[in-house]
Design a protein that fits this description.
Number of domains: 1
Order of helices and strands: EEEEEEEEEE
Number of strands: 10
Strand content: over 45%
Helix content: under 10%
CATH class: Mainly Beta
CATH topology: Jelly Rolls
Length: 138
C-alpha cells in the first residue's frame, strides 16, 4: 500500500490557480521527498511566467512539511508548515512568494516534502493559491 496523496484543482483562471492537497500516511512508505503539487508543464502558463504563492491554509496531524520551488541546481525553500490545525499565511501584502528561478532554467514546480509522515494515521490537508506572474529577473 502507498501513501494516499490527492491533489484537486479548485480554481484555474487566467491569473490564479488554487489546489487542495490531501495526505494520508500508510505507515510504511515514509516521508514525501519533493512531491510536485503544482507543475507549470501541465498548466496554461504564458512564456516567461512563474508562480507566486499568494496564500496557504493547512492542518497536519503528526507531521510537518515544507514547500519549495524546484530549480535545476538547488531547490528554493519557501515556507515551513508545522504540525497543527487552523494555520493560514497570506503573502499577498508582500507581492507573494515568487519562484526566483529563471523560466529558462526552472522546471516551474511547487514541491512538498514532509518530516515525520511515517505513522499510520498521520494525515493532513492544505489549500494553496498561486498567481501566474511574469518573470522580471533576479
Amino acid at each position: 500500500m502507498a501513501n494516499r496523496i490527492e491533489v484537486t484543482k479548485l480554481l484555474d483562471d487566467t491569473k490564479y490557480l488554487c489546489y487542495h492537497v490531501y495526505l494520508k500516511s500508510d505507515g510504511a512508505s515514509g516521508d514525501l521527498d519533493s512531491f510536485a503539487i503544482i507543475d507549470s508543464a501541465t498548466e496554461a502558463m504564458g512564456r516567461n511566467h512563474v508562480f507566486a504563492i499568494d496564500d496557504v491554509t493547512w492542518g497536519f496531524n503528526g507531521f510537518s512539511a515544507n514547500l519549495h520551488f524546484e530549480l535545476l541546481v538547488d531547490d528554493s525553500l519557501i515556507w515551513v508548515l508545522p504540525p497543527s490545525t487552523g494555520n493560514y499565511v497570506d503573502f499577498k501584502k508582500f507581492g507573494g512568494l515568487k519562484d526566483r528561478g529563471d523560466p529558462a532554467d526552472s522546471p516551474g514546480k511547487v514541491l512538498l516534502s514532509t518530516t515525520g509522515f511515517v505513522d499510520n494515521g498521520d494525515e493532513g490537508s492544505l489549500v494553496i493559491k498561486v498567481r501566474k506572474t511574469r518573470f522580471k529577473g533576479a
